[in-house]
Amino acid sequence: FAPYLKHGKGYVSIPKDDDVLSIGLNRAVVLIAEKAAKGPGQGRAAPPLKELGEHPDDQAAVEVKKGRYGPYVAHKRTFASLPKGVEPEDVTMEMALELLAKKLDSKKKKAPAKKAVPKKKAAAKKKAGAKKKAPAKKSAKAKKAAPESAPDASQED
């Protein structure tokens, strides 16, 4: 729905302030480079609001990020929302580790081991003679014949 550039398999939209007919090779290269620097897709990760440091167990980054439903703490693939009233700037590493630990515990409780469901035995087939007959349908009442109409005046003798 808007003018764009194609480079390989990728597409780059041309901003409204650039004229499509007068865009040069240099400007096109700049636009493609800017798009490549942003990263792929619309789900580009926003920069963290605060970096808390490395997790003591595995040295992976622990960060406070801004999400759609409010700020949260992120560590690898674990995300824990900040409680209401807590500002992202006030979060400490200890507080973040507690929130992440609670989140991991709640994940473990929600996913109990699945129990094997016993297979049901196939229902015994009924004998053909044991079937109940459907009740007979009532026949529609015969319609009364329409009364003969008076002879037409055109058929007079």
Task: For the structure shown, list the relevant keywords.
single chain; 157 residues; alpha+beta; 4-stranded antiparallel sheet; two-stranded antiparallel ribbon; 2 helices; 6 strands; 20% helix; 19% strand
| Proportion in helices | 10-25%
Contiguous helical run count: 2
Number of strands: 6
Poorly predicted runs of 5 or more residues: none
Determine the mean pLDDT.
81
Shape: flat
Oligomer: single chain
> What is the string of helix and strand elements?
EEHEEEEH
- Radius of gyration over alpha carbons? 38 Å
What does this molecule look like?
The chain is an alpha+beta fold and 157 residues long. It is built from two helices and six strands; from the N terminus they run ββαββββα. It has helices at 25-38, 93-110, and strands at 4-7, 10-13, 50-54, 61-67, 70-75, 78-81. A hairpin with a 2-residue loop joins strand 5 and strand 6. The protein starts with a strand and ends in a 47-residue tail after the last helix. The mean pLDDT is 81.
Which helices and strands, and how do they pair?
Blueprint (H helix, E strand, L loop, with lengths): L3 E4 L2 E4 L11 H14 L11 E5 L6 E7 L2 E6 L2 E4 L11 H18 L47
Antiparallel strand pairs: 1-2, 3-4, 4-5, 5-6
Could you write a compact summary of the structure shown?
It contains two helices and six strands, in the order E-E-H-E-E-E-E-H.
